Amino acid sequence: MKTSALRIRLATLGALVALAGCASHEFPDSSRLYGLNLDAARAIYGEWTTNVKLDGKQFYIWRRGATYEGQPVFCELWVEVAPRQIIGRRFVQGHAEACKLF
């Protein structure tokens, strides 16, 4: 029992260390989608990877992957939509090399 708890803690710590290399990015053009319909983001980024509902809010998520120094790196673009599919906010999180793909 104690061994599995230790493994869980070590796995959690490892995940946190891995995420420490990630950063949130705001791009100069990030405000161009605000107030537009979700179709505007779809026209720019293609079909979303997944969508989720968190705390009553709908999010659409696009993922991009790249290779940096021989290692796979990833980035996610999250778009929050209000009723009628209007974009309320957008943020990007992940490795800078992969985020360049947005």
Q: Summary?
A:
The protein has 102 residues and is α+β, with helices and mostly antiparallel strands.
What does this structure look like?
The chain is built from three helices and five strands; from the N terminus they run H-E-H-E-E-E-E-H. With 102 residues, the protein is α+β, with helices and mostly antiparallel strands. It has a five-stranded antiparallel beta sheet with strand order 1-5-4-3-2. It is elongated and about 40 Å long. The model is unreliable at 10-22 (pLDDT under 50).
Highlighted features:
102 residues, alpha+beta, five-stranded antiparallel beta sheet, 3 helices, 30% helix
Structural class by secondary-structure content: alpha+beta
Largest sheet: 5 strands, antiparallel
Query: What's the average pLDDT?
Result: 80
Distance between the termini: 44 Å
Which word captures the global form?
elongated
Number of strands: 5
- Measured on Cα atoms, how large is the radius of gyration? 16 Å
Could you tell me the strand content as a percent range?
35-45%
